[in-house]
Q: What sequence folds into this?
């Protein structure tokens, strides 16, 4: 790929624009010029630049004119001052302005036009790219499974705007992803990249193997997305993950970089057995039950054990508030999911499913959760917050690693296990694996359990010849046994707090429009039975 | 009142006794934990071994000579935020100090009120950095 260092020059004097542009273009840079602040902002909206060269005072005679400083402030407010390196250039700059530019806005240099020298300036720019931008524009990127970055940026959410196919934003974000790889792997000669999974909140994950002059390096995982989200994920990692790392197998951060729109975290999975690491969904589909159980035990006892071991004292917890904040749904969004998107279900207070016998009717759980506050005596501890099939990685030896810490933080101790329980039943049990009636029978059997101490007895309660369903059932029973161990110091033996967590995850899955109708019907049925079980 | 563990730790380096005392008095009265030295040995063993890395190093000097340049390099190698107070701060010297990584630069002589203001700004600036800037300046912690 023929990449160039991208530079935007903002100067009101044509002779300076021409001089700077020709000097930089002769040096191999791609240069755009702007005469005004508005022109510069337009350029920055439409394209991305590694470096912005900014004249402080445009229109010489006016000493009050400091448009360059105003633009600095605007860029800082937009969060762009660390995505694009800024060099101030002025014939009239003061030490006061220099101090403000460096300390408030993080400019990387402040040059005096009166001492301008073409060759020296070009050399300074090359140094800026090497030391400040830190980019390898010659990196060879080999995409696998997809044709290029255009495909993996679709559906990213940047500042609340979703990246849609065949739009200028898609083109721009794809170019920035390529640029992000050049920054994260600035010491490599080439990388092989394949998409791994979509992450939380409109972010995404890549699997990358870098190659250096001395040979192939260790494979790594990159989480990328809007720069503010990635900034938050890194903060969560430092606060909740890093202090609990141990045991020789852990997720560590190797680097954090950004472009104007994107941020990227480079995760290393220390201790992986070989390079064969699968996401949990893929692992689950290919593994037998014993392997699945073994991995889940390691996940909750080893990988996340330190989180749950620090659950503190028993305390009242408003589970409604906890899950609404975590999952971000409203009753309105659930009603929309039911009425507009699930046409096979009829009824208002009582629901009838087209694929179930007409005499079977079920409580509509959505109106029941309106204004209900479900408070339980339980434990609060650090949780991952998004235990979906993509965020848990499993290596060939059955050890687990976590990625995507955007939602990591303190919360109900059952957040993670209940989410994975829901994922196994409603997502990993594929549409063709079981009918809605079979799913209903499984849910009714599982909910026969009134106390945690009865969970182990569930194992023999659901004889079925459907192998996929049997695997799902046994996996879920194992997860609930593990859940019980997380609260075994609680003498109450109360499983209802677990059911509350399952209720909110089931309701949330109604909004997962990428699931098949039978999977979302399953989620609705599950929520209905849970609402009845909880006596709502 | 913040406990001593919550108070920001500042190391003041100044060979001029008058300015060193003035800085220590002003910063202590403002609630900082201050450790002052007149030596250019860095890190100052007593300060670091007992309390860990400081939140800010304040270097006061008459001019930025070779000794000061070497000291500044040693401080910045420790990845510690540095405020330089000096006389004869020309455009070139100021630019050079920022380029090597000083958090802030201020003219000397200064009054105690201005010193506290600049120290607070430097601490706030370090605290408010986003993770990208922090990693760029200090690496992944």
A:
């Amino acid at each position: 790929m023929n990449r160039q260092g991208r530079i935007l020059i903002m100067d009101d004097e044509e002779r300076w624009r021409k001089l700077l542009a020709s000097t930089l273009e002769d040096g191999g840079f791609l240069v755009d010029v702007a005469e005004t602040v508005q022109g510069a902002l337009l350029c920055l909206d439409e394209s991305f630049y590694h470096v912005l060269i900014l004249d402080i005072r445009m229109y010489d005679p006016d000493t009050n004119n400091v448009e360059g400083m105003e633009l600095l402030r605007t860029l800082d407010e937009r969060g762009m001052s660390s995505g694009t390196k800024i060099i101030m250039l002025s014939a009239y700059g003061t030490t006061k302005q220099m101090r403000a530019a460096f300390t408030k806005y993080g400019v990387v240099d402040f040059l005096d036009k009166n001492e301008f020298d073409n060759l020296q300036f070009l050399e300074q720019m090359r140094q800026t790219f090497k030391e400040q931008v830190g980019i390898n524009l010659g990196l060879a990127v080999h995409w696998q499974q997809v044709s290029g970055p255009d495909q993996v940026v679709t559906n990213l959410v940047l500042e609340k705007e979703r990246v849609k196919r065949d739009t200028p934003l898609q083109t721009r974000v794809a170019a920035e992803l390529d640029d992000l790889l050049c920054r994260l792997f600035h010491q490599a000669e080439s990388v092989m990249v394949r998409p791994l999974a979509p992450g939380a909140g409109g972010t995404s994950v890549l699997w990358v193997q870098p190659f250096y002059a001395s040979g192939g390096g260790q494979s790594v995982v990159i989480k990328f997305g809007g720069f503010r989200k990635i900034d938050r994920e890194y903060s969560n990692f430092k606060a909740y993950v890093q202090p609990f790392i141990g045991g020789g197998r852990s997720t560590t951060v190797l680097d954090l970089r950004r472009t104007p729109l994107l941020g990227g975290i480079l995760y290393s999975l220390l201790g992986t057995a070989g390079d064969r690491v699968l996401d949990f969904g893929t692992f689950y589909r290919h593994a037998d039950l014993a392997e699945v159980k073994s991995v889940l035990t390691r996940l909750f006892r080893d990988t996340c054990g330190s989180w749950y071991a620090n659950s503190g004292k028993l305390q009242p917890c408003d589970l409604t508030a906890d899950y609404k904040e975590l999952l971000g749904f409203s009753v309105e969004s659930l009603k929309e999911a039911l009425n507009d998107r699930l046409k096979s279900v009829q009824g208002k207070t009582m629901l009838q499913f087209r694929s179930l016998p007409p005499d079977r009717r079920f409580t509509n759980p959505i109106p029941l959760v309106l204004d209900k506050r479900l408070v339980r005596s339980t434990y609060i501890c650090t949780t991952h917050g998004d235990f979906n099939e993509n965020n848990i990685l499993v290596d060939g030896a059955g050890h687990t690693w976590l990625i995507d810490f955007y939602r990591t933080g303190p919360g109900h101790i059952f957040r993670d296990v209940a989410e994975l329980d829901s994922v196994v039943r409603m997502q990993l049990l594929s549409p063709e694996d079981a009918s809605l009636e079979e799913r209903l029978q499984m849910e009714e059997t599982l909910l026969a359990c009134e106390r945690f101490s009865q969970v182990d007895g569930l194992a023999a309660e659901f004889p079925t010849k459907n192998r996929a369903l049997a695997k799902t059932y046994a996996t879920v029973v194992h997860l609930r046994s593990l859940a019980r161990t997380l609260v075994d110091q609680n003498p109450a033996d109360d499983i209802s707090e677990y059911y509350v967590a399952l209720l909110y995850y089931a309701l949330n899955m109604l909004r997962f429009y990428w699931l098949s109708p039978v999977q979302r019907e399953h989620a609705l049925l599950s929520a209905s039975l849970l609402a009845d079980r909880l006596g709502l | 009142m913040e406990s001593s563990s919550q108070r920001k730790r500042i190391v003041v380096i100044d060979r001029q006794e008058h300015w060193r005392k003035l800085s220590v008095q002003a910063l202590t009265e403002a609630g900082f934990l201050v450790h002052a030295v007149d030596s250019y040995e860095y890190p100052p063993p007593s300060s670091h071994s007992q309390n860990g890395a400081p939140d800010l190093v304040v270097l006061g000097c008459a001019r930025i000579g070779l000794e000061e340049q070497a000291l500044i390099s040693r401080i910045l190698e420790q990845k510690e935020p540095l405020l330089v107070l000096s006389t004869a701060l020309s455009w070139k010297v100021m630019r050079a100090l920022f380029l090597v990584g000083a958090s802030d630069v201020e003219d000397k002589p200064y009054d105690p009120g201005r010193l506290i203001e600049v120290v607070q700004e430097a601490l706030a600036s370090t605290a408010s950095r986003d993770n990208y800037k922090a990693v760029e300046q200090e690496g992944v912690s």
In short: The radius of gyration of chain B is 14 Å. Chain B touches chain A through 20 residues (CB under 8 Å). The mean pLDDT of chain B is 88. Strands of chain B lie at 9-14, 33-37, 56-61, 82-86, 104-107.
